[in-house]
Amino acid sequence: MSKQSLSIVNPADAGEACCAPLVREPLGETEAAELAPLFKALADPVRLRLLSLIACHEGGEACVCDLTAAFDVTAPTISHHLKVLKQAGLIDSERRGTWVYYWLNPGVLDRLAATLGPRATAASAS
Amino acid sequence: MSKQSLSIVNPADAGEACCAPLVREPLGETEAAELAPLFKALADPVRLRLLSLIACHEGGEACVCDLTAAFDVTAPTISHHLKVLKQAGLIDSERRGTWVYYWLNPGVLDRLAATLGPRATAASAS
């Protein structure tokens, strides 16, 4: 059976905010390969909470000293999870004196959200 | 350092569609534990494309016979990935005669999208 025989909903025919891109047209190999490592980085409860704590922290950034108290895991484990989040491109960091500070790369979460669900921007513009 | 010393943005103070729940308030342990396995199921390019193909297929459902042609992997591998997606609760299935048909559990993707990005519903209602 060829790819052509699959019945695909044309994105142009879909309502503005009715469907996620994932639901409107088949995800390409390249995009799937780009997205999978981002979801893998999110596939851990500690990393999800770390990401959220960093995002919620005053000024949108946090140092490791702000994060470790919320978890029952060791500081090296927190550091490992931060490294995984950074390597995936979800967060970025900078050393200032003694501490390394972390912040979210906000565009990345928006991209993931927009892939999975209806676009908030399109809905608010209608 | 206690949890109390973390500076948290009050969700009530945040703009309606400005931020994802993840960014408005720290993700709880329970929610993080519920979300992580869903992201883990999405953390594979073949599974992402399978999910998308099922969602885009006519009538919002597809049988394995509709899916295998799009991939360079074997039918048992496709079946394995479908099982992972189903066990995570992202898709559901039903046998009808020879074939098993699969469809998306749409609420699950919406929940993930709403966790990561601004809510489309809130934005359109404003």
UniProtKB/TrEMBL annotation, chains A, B:
InterPro entries in UniProt: ArsR-like_HTH, ArsR_HTH, HTH_ArsR_DNA-bd_dom, HTH_MetalResp_TranReg, WH-like_DNA-bd_sf, WH_DNA-bd_sf
UniProt GO MF annotations: DNA binding; DNA-binding transcription factor activity
Pfam families: HTH_5
Keywords: DNA-binding, Transcription, Transcription regulation
Keyword Secreted attached: no
Xref: Gene3D superfamilies: Winged helix-like DNA-binding domain superfamily/Winged helix DNA-binding domain
Alphabetical list of SMART domains matching this protein: HTH_ARSR
CDD domains (UniProt xref): HTH_ARSR (cd00090)
Residue stretches making up the HTH arsR-type domain: 27-124
The protein, known as: Helix-turn-helix transcriptional regulator
Protein species of origin: Actinomadura montaniterrae
